[in-house]
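Lab meeting notes turned into a lecture example. A postdoc, R.K., suggested we walk through two folding results consecutively so the class can see how the record format repeats. The first protein's sequence and structure tokens come next.
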Amino acid sequence: MGTGTRVALLGLGTMGRGMALNLLKAGFPLTVYNRTRAKADVLAVEGIRVAETPARAAEEATVVLAMLADDEASRAVWLGTDGALAAMRPGSVVVECSTLSPDWVAELDAAARARGLQIVDAPVTGSRAQAEAGQLNFLAGADAQSLDKVTPVLRCMSKEILHLGPVGSGAQLKLINNFLCAAQVTSFAEALAWIERTGLNREVALEFLKKGAAGSGILYTMADRMTKRTYEVNFLLRLMAKDVGYARAAAARRSVDLSTAKPTEALFRKAQDLGHGEQDMSAVVEVVRQERTA
């Protein structure tokens, strides 16, 4: 798809806004849809066309991307009332960038192909800052031809595009990635609460951990966010809770019991129940800080 590529983007949450601005910067004619219209209207002043429904957003597009919260939201924009799939022209490409269950991705793949559409399963790694900077990593599941068609579109938003195999491969690796991240976040939250209840100098202890064998990129990030206690959203806590649940189910289908995912998901769910769901995932530490053993 060359200079005639027209793009639609469905979903303007934490990640979608940055993606939209990078698509616009790259010169792609762009139409957006968001369930909450106010988030879309903010982008209208940038020269981006805002559609009333997913179908209206997709009807003239050759590439339609979605960046949504979960399976339910994805199903609604693709197959629901005024859904995008029914409005897309044969030969156009569906690009699903959300973190979804492999079961739903397989169902979406079948629905798209039945309508003569191509599909690329391309969830992303990175958070709000990477989306705004055009530095996302796309984990792509697709046939080579479909991925080639959308590579120029993905390139303007990305640091790397990994072709992992057929449709569904991206969903699998994204859940593996998020499971590992979530387990580290909750483990570090518990470690930090432990440090704070000792006589240790917190800053010295954290510098040791960051530089030692336990250190990792996510530990560096979480140490900063959890000690500052601001919890500005880079990755919504409620979405990580959802992702761990999807990961457990996807692994179980491959006869793998993610035993460490069970307490991880439980801690995120508890944080969500206590009102931290709309904060950054690092806010999970507040649950541990408040807990007292008998």
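The second example is placed directly after the first for contrast:
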Amino acid sequence: MENKKILKRRLAIRSQKSPGVVTLITDFGLRGEYVGAMKGAILKVNPRCQVVDITHRIGPQDVLEASFVLKNTYPFYPPGTVHTVVIDPGVGTRRRPIVLKKDGHLFVGPDNGVFTLILSAGGPTEGYELARGEFFLSPLSDTFHGRDIFAPVAGHLSLGMDPKVFGPRLRDFVRIEWPRPKVKGKKLLGRVLWDDAFGNLITNISREEYGRFIGDRPLQITGKGWRIDRVHRTYGEGQPGKPLALFGSAGLLEISVNRGCAKMALGLKRGDPLTITPV
């Protein structure tokens, strides 16, 4: 039976607050029961909650991609939104489940590096371990904390519950290293991070790093069997079927093919290198 104090607090908050918004980022894909079960666990706590699917197509166990997607989506949601991120290869181990409060938003997920890029942005951050089992589903699965821990906690937070209720304050968090490009002689060496739904290849070269290295000089961008001689402003500026480079909405250099799929046309995959050389 649900703890009576929790139920009383939830009902009091629910009567005063807006329905709340919870976003979901997972690597669950669209098959099976996982996404649906998580949504049910959220709505069981807050039936009026608006649950938004950001994506469930993060690469399996790809903590870095999840951190990137979160950084580039959360600012566009209203303050008070609860962002639930479940890319959790260490589920059931001693890794900590946490909630963060930053920039007026709340973030729920495993302390395994998924929050690296929002933590690296600077500014005050509060963090708490999710340690109070009365807020979790029971019995607690060792393999599905997305449903049994993160989803119900997100539901409570969407009702306006204070993050500090869930457990002790934390001062440090797990971070993963962002793969930065390297300068070797007169060359800037980057690599493909991943591809998007259109087959555009996102690299680890930011606009700022490119500007410091190249400035206004002419250049060549080369990879396996291809060469690009300039950076375009839009996808449509390139010749149909030919590779082009531009800076996408996240501020990273992309390799694309106008009216085509760069991933297939160029045969590139995550981790493949590219080189920028001034000429």
